[in-house]
Amino acid sequence: MVKSPRMVGGNGLFFPILGFASIIAFIYLSFGDLLSVRYKNEINLSFVERNGSNFMVDGELFYINGWNSYWFMDHAVHYDSRPRIRAMLQAAAKMGLTVCRTWAFNDGDYNALQVSPGQFDERVFQSLDYVIAEAREVGIRLLLSLVNNLDAYGGKTQYVKWAWSEGVGLSSSNDSFFYDPSIRIYFKNYVKTILTRKNTVTGIEYRDDPTIFGWELINEPRCITDPSGDTLQGWIEEMSTFIKSIDNKHMLTVGLEGFYGRKSPKRKTVNPEFWAADMGVDFIRNSAPSTIDFASVHIYPDQWFKNKSLEGKLKFVSEWMHSHIEDGDRVLKKPVMFTEFGLSDLNKGFDPAQRDEFYRIVFDVIYESAKKKGAGGGSFAWQFLVEGMEDFNDDFGIVPWKRASTYKIITGHSCRLAKIHGTVSPVSRNLKDICSGRW
Predict the structure, then answer these.
(1) Side-chain half-sphere of 340: how many Cα atoms within 13 Å?
(2) Which of 29, 397, 427, 437 has the fewest CB atoms within 10 Å, i.e. the most exposed one?
């Protein structure tokens, strides 16, 4: 789905809204003793692994209450906006959240990590180092996405522009990202640089760092020029094999929205509408390769349906999730992660209580799967921010502690997941306070 990844100022530049002092003041006022909770030199993380359709850490089941803050690396570039990363991570730990999904790419855009093919801005790379180090200190893991299907932060379109400008591109279609040999080399070089990067803060190569939960090949891939799905499937198989040849410690997912393709019997019974089968993707086929460790799904009912009532959309959410978890349990034998879910506040008659109900439905489905040790491995709300970031928000983002009922739903989900299987997350030290009276 098309979302606004960030806002720009009048001069077109991405700039921090609040100064360092006001950020710090806000954090102290809003979180009280939160800043006093530091985990330096105390966190020992293990790699998350897969056992069939379950995630495991140190031999224990691991179900995830996570969130998206795509903006971490971008905001870490500037010292006056860096405190937002720590504030978000510490607030998340206080809510019992365990994994954050964020971008490990910015291709040719403002604050670009990759300025041109194979050329990197060290200043921005050190910002990503900082994000990983901060997450490690708090004990929260990161799911890092490697490129965007959309144009935001460059995306596959930027790769095509690079190839075209250098006179080696086969086509100006942005779908040539998936089949152009020159672009495939560009992307492989990028991926290798990321995986083998030695963090300037921790001294650990990314591929050896258990702070990284796993890698995501591409955010929301679509290849509409080949609705058969063969082009995208070939790319997934090639790139996932390449990544595993460099990094066999971390898990890998595709980054799918979860649509069923033309040959799937579920295209008519589960897909949101008829168009979804023509996106050149297929949830089962794309998630099946042995080099893909877990499946990914997104949930945006108000983007996928234009004429369905709220009740109808919420009913769809439950059915959509159950279908994919069933696929994980019975067909793929892999965990399924709902790596983005959101409800727009631009809907006519929107009330925050509607979003609360949406979150509750998503969490209930994950909880029911967790109770049965099922494949529903976790969910990630799109998106969480800290106060003062209104200009970087879209119509899905929230500051979760601003609304007491929403905060209670999120933390309550952390508590009941921990109650079922215990918790192997370092943020478990927060759960006794969070969950007092719930257990």
Answers:
(1) 24
(2) 437
Q: Rounded CA gap, 171 and 189, in Å? A: 21
CB 207 within 8 A of CB 250: yes
Please pick, among 220, 237, 357, 390, the residue that the annotation labels catalytic: 220
CA atoms within 13 Å, Cβ hemisphere of 237: 10
DSSP string, 341-372: E---TTSTT--HHHHHHHHHHHHHHHHHHHHT
**Which are the contacts of 302, defined by CB distance < 8 A and separation ≥ 6?**
313, 343, 344, 347
pLDDT digits (tens, 9 = 90+) for 326-368: 999 999 999 999 999 999 999 989 999 999 999 999 999 999 9
pLDDT digit string, tens, across residues 293-326 = 999 999 999 999 988 999 999 999 999 999 999 9
Write down the catalytic residue from 134, 137, 257, 340.
340
The residue type at 14: F
Helix (H, G, I), strand (E, B) or coil at 67: strand
End-to-end CA distance of the chain: 38
Active site residue 220: yes
Q: What is the pLDDT of residue 9?
A: 33
Higher pLDDT, 147 or 27: 147
Rounded Cα distance, 136 and 118, in Å: 27
| Burial 58-85, CB ≥16 within 10 A → b, else e | eeebbbbbbbbbbbbbbbbbeebbbbbb
* CA atoms of 290 and 67, how far apart (whole Å): 26
Is 216 tagged catalytic? no
Residues 6+ apart with CB under 8 A from 435: 96, 411, 414, 415, 418, 419
